[in-house]
Amino acid sequence: MKHLEILKSPVDLNLVNFAMIGEPIINQVRKIKDIPGIFGDEKAYQKMDQEQLAYTVQSWLPVADGTPGGLFFGVSTIYPGKVGNEYFMTKGHFHLKSDRAEFYWGVQGKGMLILMDRDRNTWAEEIYPGSLHYIGGEIAHRLANTGSENLVVGACWPSDAGHDYQEIAVKGFSARLVENDGKPELV
User: Fold this and answer.
1) What is the pLDDT of residues 103-122, one digit of tens each?
2) 3 domain-assigned
């Protein structure tokens, strides 16, 4: 029983780099070799150092996955780099419970939040320190780093949302974010 106890938070959040410390934090690392098929230039992908870090994700899941009414918290760090002229990015996903929304906010660096609806209309929002992004239900989303430093993005989503990576793995997004004349462009 915790009645009248004063407890320390189980997780500390570093407000400089947004790294989480504590239990239970889930740490995921994605190297180039872990994300085949998301970049358009397969030859450039094959030439990349397959051990190079592309992005990391830290998640705090304070309730069981699938719990109605709960919230999860995460931090994604996308490293700078390109495969051909396409920026390093996350795999991207819809939510399994497709009506579930999510918040993202920019912490460090610059990048793009790439969004796609079920009709395969694709657009992007600029991410920068202090930007706040609402991702509605039925919207696929992925992050891309368009800068020269780490892109760090915070996230909060419903604990029963789930992740559907399969649809994006099979069909991809309907547009790609590439560097054209030194600037990001959806093509």
Assistant:
1) 999 999 999 999 999 999 99
2) no
Query: Among all chains, which residue has been given the structure tokens 């872990």?
Result: 34
What residue numbers bound the domain in which 88 lies? 21-186
Report the alpha-carbon distance of residue 125 to residue 123 in Å, rounded. 7
From 15, 7, 32, 22, select the one nearest 89 (Cα to Cα): 32
Q: What is the CATH number of the domain that holds 170?
A: 2.60.120.10
Token couple for 146: 């368009």
Q: CA–CA separation, 143 vs 35, rounded Å?
A: 14
Which has the closest alpha carbon to 35: 153, 162, 168?
168
Residue listed under structure tokens 């358009």 = 40
The C-alpha angle with vertex 166 and arms to 72 and 113, in degrees rounded to 5, equals 55
Instruction: Give the span between the Cα atoms of 82 and 145, in whole angstroms.
Output: 9
pTM comes to 0.95
